[in-house]
Amino acid sequence: MQTIQESPNAARWPRHAVKQVECRKRDLVVRIVDWTKDKEEPAYDVECYIGGVYDWNESEVFTTKSSNRTKAQAKAMAIEYAQKQIAKLL
Q1: Whole-model pTM?
Q2: What residues does 33 pair with on adjacent strands?
Q3: What are the start-end ranges of the E strands in the chain?
Q4: Any idea what DSSP says for residue 9?
Q5: Which alpha helices (DSSP H) does the chain contain, by range?
Q6: CA 8, 12, 17 angle in degrees (round to 5)?
Q7: Cα distance between residue 48 and residue 40, in whole Å
Q8: Strand, coil or helix: what is 69?
Q9: For 36, which of 26, 41, 42, 74 could close a Cys bridge (C-beta 3.0–4.6 Å)?
């Protein structure tokens, strides 16, 4: 995953760092976390927040080590799952 930096201007526009994402009642947030550098269990974590509420049943983890997947396979599965969740929940 590529990371980006804040905008170098005083207003930090258009990019600024946040500590958390606030969700409104009508927001659907799909968060994909790259844990592939974790030595114990590398994975991609797809988390779904519906109206600001995390739903474990609508979220999924795509591991590499314990499931004998490559990083590329786990990434492709995470992308596909996120797309399906967006289509289903939006």
Answers
A1: 0.87
A2: 45
A3: 28-34, 43-50, 53-54, 60-63
A4: S
A5: 71-89
A6: 105
A7: 24
A8: coil
A9: 42
Q: Which two tokens stand for residue 16?
A: 């600024």
| CB 49, CB 24: distance < 8 Å | no
Q: Where are the domains of the chain?
A: 28-89
CB 38 within 8 A of CB 22: no
Bridge partners (DSSP) listed for residue 44: 34, 62
User: What is the C-alpha separation between 83 and 90, in angstroms, rounded?
Assistant: 10
Q: How do residues 30-84 score in pLDDT, each as one tens digit?
A: 999 999 999 999 999 999 999 999 999 999 999 999 999 999 999 999 999 999 9
Per-residue tokens: 70: 């490559």
**For the chain, how big is the Rg over CA atoms in Å?**
15
15-25 residue pLDDT tens: 998 888 888 99
